Amino acid sequence: MDERFFSATLPVVNGHSEETLPLIQRLLADSGIGLAELDGIIYGQGPGAFTGLRIGCGIAQGLALAHDLPLIPVPTLDVIAFQSGAPAVQVVMDARMNEVYTASYRDGVAQTPITLQARAALSVPADIPLLAGDCAQELNYPGKTACELRPDAASYIRLVRRGGYATVAPEAAGLLYIRDKVALTATEQQARKYG
């Protein structure tokens, strides 16, 4: 089967929510298909930036409801593990506040749940040689190779095509936050600075 991908990237800045729908319309026009012709809509379930996750899920829900399409939620770390192509990888993603979201993968299958760990106390199994993710290189984890990766749309599609991801109705779409706090309070910042 001939495979073509139409994708675009928006920089994460203020106003990207207003640019997303016109971008989707342009991509559909370029591909020559309409939303009603899709089999479903894949969206990044998280973890990740709270606002970006909410915007992405909200747009996916709205489009799916309007065109009677199922949604396919995919955890962000699964996509990074897939992109790495490694048989064994520890995925690490910046969670801010000196923490990372992390999970271990073997042959593309999660071996651990996605957890939140302090950067300085990151635990990686000895037999996993590779760290992959948006902050892998800056972690400088001893004895591990680092690969800087961020998820892309084509990888979401290829991963879902391999199977293992269930569809959900638009009203059942949810996000994988891991934690419900996005920033430290002023008191917590001071305690970390001087504690």
TrEMBL record:
Residues 15-108 form the Gcp-like domain. Signal peptide: none annotated. InterPro entries: ATPase_NBD (IPR043129), Gcp-like_dom (IPR000905), T6A_TsaB (IPR022496). It comes from the Bacteria. Gene3D superfamilies: 3.30.420.40. Coiled coil: none annotated. NCBIfam families: T6A_YeaZ. This is tRNA (Adenosine(37)-N6)-threonylcarbamoyltransferase complex dimerization subunit type 1 TsaB. It comes from Vogesella fluminis.
